[in-house]
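>> received
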Amino acid sequence: MFINFSNHPYAQWSAEQTAAAQRYGKVVDLAFPAIDPAADEAALDSLAAVYADHILHLNPDAVLCQGECTFVYRVVQRLEAAGIPTLAACSRRKSQETTYPDGSTLKRSIFVFAGFRRYGPMP
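>> returned
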């Protein structure tokens, strides 16, 4: 089983990302929580422990973990320590910028999936 622990639902992934995830088995979405920017380290540690424990009880073969950086770090540490390969999606960004006469800028980015990369230590 491949757990998608992010804010990007599996149903919206590209065919390439879907195929890469399915190599690990069935893909299951687990919504990433909203992390309060005012949360202190103790609150993040506690929430990370709750989510990591939940994920570990699902016994996944791999986990995509992406979202608020300091929370991700805490979850990844716990999953990797338990031997669960924890991954980030890598992409190529195609950006287009338009500058308007008033000086404002609109930036549009398209992300093209390029693979998964493990957070864990080198083998």
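>> Strands lie at 2-6, 27-31, 62-65, 86-99, 105-118.
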